[in-house]
Amino acid sequence: MPELPEVETIARDLAPKITGRTIVGVDVRWRRSVDERGLAARSLVGDTVVGVRRLGKYVTFDLASGRTATVHLRMTGRLIADPPAKLPHTRIVMRFEDGGSLVLSDVRKFGRLRIIEGDPRAALAIGIDPFDPALTPARLHELMHGRRTKIKVWLLDQRRLAGIGNIYASEALFDARIRPTRQAGKLTLSHASALLRSLRKVMRKAIYHRGSSIDDYVDAEGKPGEFQKKLAVYGRGGLPCRRCQATIRRAVLAQRGTFFCPVCQL
Asked: Is 0.85 surpassed by the pTM of this model?
């Protein structure tokens, strides 16, 4: 599932291609691809995209009407602007007045479009962004205070921090030298400072390399990312640690594969 760096890459790619274009039609080819908690897809007709950004793991389209359209790509969703040919597994086609289009292609049909009135962050029930200047080490430490949840699992809770998934939680914890099984509430302010620094460091690098294409992720031009070649621990169970040469271990936390160094991470 695309995480913060992948979604940020897609949003940045789409912004110059989509901003300023007016929607003249929405063709929904798989009904469940539209989240029924929002407005109907046809309500987008006549509206203009005034901005594209990332909100947590959502690609977000700001509309001239003041509403917001969000797309969660889930496992295999792809957003491609003005594809030169018909895409397989097309679920939604958003048509523009200039004859172009934005296509949601999704093999497994889990991706969702949702049209929101009001505050999208509240509607999506997501927490603070890791890059938000308001997220200081002290604020992160406060959010973790009293939590018995293992820190790796805590990082995956989108209600706390928005955008972090399995790959970058593992990578940031390795960079910060924190074992993923430690209780979030027992980490010190010093730990919180190191973790926040590592989260931002790892994800900035991943954005620079246009995300990690481990399974199905491609950018808005249909091209894979490159950061999977630079992962320190994720997917490297049984291989030597790049820092101390100990063997990387794999554990399962909250039904997710978790990778860590038993020597470097305490």
From this structure: yes
